[in-house]
From TrEMBL:
CDD domains: NADPH_BDH
Name of the protein: Uncharacterized protein
Leader sequence residues: none
UniProt keywords, alphabetically: Oxidoreductase
Alcohol dehydrogenase iron-type/glycerol dehydrogenase GldA domain location: 7-174
Organism name: Desulfoluna spongiiphila
An example molecular function term from Gene Ontology annotations: metal ion binding
Oxidoreductase among keywords: yes
Start and end residues of each Fe-containing alcohol dehydrogenase-like C-terminal domain: 186-375
Family per similarity comment: Belongs to the iron-containing alcohol dehydrogenase family.
Amino acid sequence: MTTFIVPKDIFHGLGSLENLKNLEGTKAVIVTGGSSVRKNGALEKTRTFLTEAGITPAVFSGVEADPSIETVLKGAAFFTEEQPDIIVGLGGCSAIDAAKAMWVYYEYPDSKLEELAAPFGVKKMRNKATFVAIPSTSGTGTEITGLSVITDTDKGVKYPLVSHELTPDVAIIDGELCASMPKSVTANTGLDALSHGVEAYVSNIADRYNDPLAKESINLVFKNLARAVAEPGDLETRQAMHDASCLAGMAFTNVWLGIVHAMSHQVGGTFGVAHGCGNAILMPNVIRFNAKVTDKYGDLAALLGKSTAEEFAREVAGLTASVGVAGSFKECGIDEEKWNAKLDSMTEHALKDPCTLFNPRKPTFDEIKAIYQACYDGTAIVF
């Protein structure tokens, strides 16, 4: 027996932010990152709609790109002062992830990050507040998932908090909020969404509830990402990419991911490669590796008028190139000597990453290392 868990309410479509007017509560804290949601008017609209609902809004801003435990604790202290019964994560993945963790510390002030990151570490939530997620980027799907990644800067360690308790109560998928995204962010986050759909579809616990969501997310990315990059003001295309991210999030939060993410986590943490870029570089060769044990890539190739896993791998590489994202880790500017020095440790950590457990093919150390090296060189690997 398995479960399928997503937010209770998902509002989607251009202008769907207005559904905030229908919330019930008395006080909300809006958690944001930098200045983008101020500049594009999303923050002011959010405050206005909450006020119209009779909810008093307060704002905690300044969440950094990789939210730290220090920021989380500051936010939780702000929550304690404000006593909200609604928490709103507004912005990119970092803002929403941080808001989720702040929510935990608001409800359980004595929490320890290491304990929260352990299996079943997050206790029953919604004792003080409910959670609303409003993404302004189209890629991570965090508005749908029970996942939050928080960094302990003293230790230099990223801790994933994984619990369905962290699944938002309300998700608002409004493409208008994405219109100001820079082209590079649009490209990288869109490829991140693609990787979520692909890995969810071939997960070793994939099922008929999640497969259609994963396939449609992939279909939407191939049809819309290049145009979203080229014509950022096309709101219908923005909405399609926002929907793709959300659908992929629904799929992967229930069947998880694979070694594309396990490996990308290490390259991102070690060399600072953007997550979507790392995923895109790794996907073609991981497809070739996994194709030995699953024929499901043929289904994905059929979406594009192709028939084989190899053809699908090439389509992924072609889409990556078409939106201006690097095709190899060498192209990302990583020095070869530094790469070689870190290769074994990245391989070891990738094998231990929880995502590896859900990959359709169980990899060895040497296989992970070979995939890494081929992706550094920009070559197609043969298994």
